[in-house]
Amino acid sequence: MSMRRLAAFLLPGLLGAGITAPVPRTASGATDADIDKVVALFSSDAVVDQPSNPKPLDAKTLRTFFSMIFRAYPDFHITIEDKVLDGWKAVTIERVTGHWRGVYTDPTTGKTAQPNGKAFDHPGAMYIVYDARHEIKRLRIFWDQLTVDRQLGITPH
Known about the structure:
By secondary structure, the chain is α+β, with helices and mostly antiparallel strands. It is built from four helices and eight strands; from the N terminus they run ααββαββββββα.
């Protein structure tokens, strides 16, 4: 399989099987199966940068972060609007949507906030690097935190 075909195969796995909530959820949020699908996509030495975390996530902290996101936003959804694939690397341009329906824990402060039911709908992008085992080694997530905070009625910190 060519690297381009491999990336085309793996990219939907990240977005469809993991972050897009493919299986029914309980009232409390994501199931363990959802989180397992997300974590299984990453290498043991993975590094993930994204705006709400003060330092990069690693293979050990991915589970906690994505579990919290799935509980806070049980209908969290990513729609790929465009993608560029180049060997072991991929870039996506996407629309991210959902509603704040569960407790959110701020990764920077550790403070929790109660849901207000408000919706978010914003553009985003991801830069993804795969390793030779076809696992995600590096993920950089880009989105405008101020836009999301405004949509959710959050006072920026």
